């Protein structure tokens, strides 16, 4: 797949390089460097919002699937704490979500079509790597 294929829904206008850079910022790619943040984005593809507790359940489960049978409380607590103090604030700064710390609620922001496509491509690639 080429960059043009991945951005076929981008408004390329007169200057395609500038438009593509504006469509998906470096902060998005930085956010996607960590597995727990990618799993958060994958979950938010299908859900407009969630609670930190539910997201910690999902990310913990996806992280440990196939590694061993039982996920312990310590695993969940590690993921929950990292989401709360590191990952969610970073993703909020990148404009990917809104994080209500008081209510423990996460809402997805409005994602551009090119961002949705990039997250789907990453999800498909990561799922195929682990499935094979």
Automatic annotation (TrEMBL):
InterPro entries: DUF7344, WH-like_DNA-bd_sf. Residues 29-106 form the DUF7344 domain. It comes from the Archaea. This is DUF7344 domain-containing protein. It comes from Natronoglomus mannanivorans. The lineage of its organism: Archaea, Methanobacteriati, Methanobacteriota, Stenosarchaea group, Halobacteria.
């Amino acid at each position: 797949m080429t960059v043009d294929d991945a951005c076929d829904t981008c408004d390329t206008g007169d200057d395609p390089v500038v438009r593509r850079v504006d469509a998906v910022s470096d902060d998005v790619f930085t956010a996607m460097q960590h597995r727990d943040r990618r799993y958060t984005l994958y979950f938010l593809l299908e859900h407009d919002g969630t609670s930190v507790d539910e997201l910690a359940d999902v990310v913990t489960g996806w992280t440990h699937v196939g590694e061993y049978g039982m996920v312990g409380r310590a695993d969940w607590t590690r993921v929950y704490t990292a989401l709360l103090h590191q990952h969610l604030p970073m993703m909020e700064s990148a404009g990917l979500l809104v994080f209500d710390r008081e209510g423990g609620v996460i809402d997805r922001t409005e994602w551009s079509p090119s961002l949705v496509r990039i997250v789907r491509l990453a999800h498909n690639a990561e799922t195929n790597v682990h499935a094979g």
